[in-house]
Amino acid sequence: MLDKIKLLVKDPQTFIARANAKLKYRIWFQDNKTRRFIQHNYKKWGPWKQSDAKSIILFDFYPFVETEIARSYLLNILAKKNKAKIVSYSTNRKHDKIWDKIYRSYNVNEHISIKLSKEQKNRSAKLYCKIISRVKSKKDIFNLKVDNVWIGVDLYEEFLMKFIEPTVVLDKRMYNIVRDGIDSLVYWKDYFEVNDVKAIVSSHIGVRIEKNLPLKIAGQLFNIPFYSTHARNITCYLKPHLYHKEIASNYLSYPERFYKLSYEEQKKGIAWAKNRLKKRLSGAIGVDMDYSTKSAFSSVNTSIKVVDKNDRIKIVVATHEFYDSPNCYGGLLFMDFYEWLMYLGEISKKTNYDWYIKTHPDVLPITKKVIKKIANNHPKFKLLPAETSFHQLASEGVEYVLTCYGSVGHECPLLGMKVINAGNNPHMGHEFNWNPKSVEEYETLLLNLDKLCLNIDYDDIYKFYYIHYQKLGIIDDWIYPSYKKMTEELSEEERFGSFMFQYFLNSLTEDKHEKIILRMTEFIEEGRSGSLDS
Description:
Helices cover about 50% and strands about 10% of the residues. The protein is an alpha/beta fold.
């Protein structure tokens, strides 16, 4: 509670956004729509129940209607395949009678909350004391491995997200998170040793303690695979602890995947991508990025020049929200976005470039405050107005854009600007950006911009775009007749509430029900890592 009060004082906007999200996702009472869905589940999934099963399919408590409809299929298919019972888990879940009833209706047998025994607490405390005595810096936190499981990155990101901080601070808050992480490791290691868990189904992978640590421990120490499904696809990682390697390999495969398409589909794909990017660069909001609320490609403000007119090389640093999973792709050259900006501040002192800092138009106030402080402490940094358009920056002579892994990697080259990334990113399989593999290589690029040459084939950008936004990870009719149509027709309130149960059931036919089961089953039987291609 104290942490929430501190967040309210520190960043009211983020506090309100988080509170609204929780309220928005909540089903407050069992209305007719919910009751109908429960009855449907008992009818369809009742015969699938694995009575007296000893093995377990484990999944995270995630009461998000749109996703849980899809997971009701995956959980039962995995349970039947492995003759297992279905068990949900959470760190500190408050009792939810409505979701208990919903889960029971599709054969969820029990729920476990992470609670250590006295013996486990003692073991965890000893391990904590041993580890914390060796922690002298945030780098020690980041690199922390216990039983050869890399838990440090999850602890690090937990701190950033929980406290909305730009970087880790070695204080009581961080030490408490280390303790939580070690508790989780002790608990899950014991749990997997005494229970025959056949698979873990999780809503997320690669993020923090509750969602990612169980997957890492299960994969690395017990060879347990990870599965996930949502409204548009299904994913499996046979080695979830190597997720970052898996996702890097996936991005590197984009060119090959495109060239495996038929000539006709390649032509249509490039045309589709051109049209979508034209819309995005015209200032349209949410083009294949439904989380976006403002565009960075608005019209040029000709009355105010934001870039100095001179002969110096001009760079724009496109910033990120500090707390928002900087290591989600793995391979970041820095521990977090703050460290990246501070590094660039030091590099700026060695150059004769003009450096501009650009936040996204809908940047959080707390992020803007930190970035302003960083800019003030580095004389060569000039902070641009948040609403500044990339069109204006290009027209006023900006040549280079720096990002860690942002979408500017495929947007800004179309405006004539060159992009240098700072870690694994979706564009890394193509050659329309620079993708340095080390800080040393990154520095060499930055200090020699006048010598760099990059010939960009725009078609490569369109090929990337088609694969990334249309082919991989998106199957429009995976669960619903059309996910795209559904998101256009329904409000957020309808999608997040019990109305989704009704929407799903009204569109469901027996053929569709069997098709969902068949496609999921065939994917699982393939036994491969990755997602199902559209």
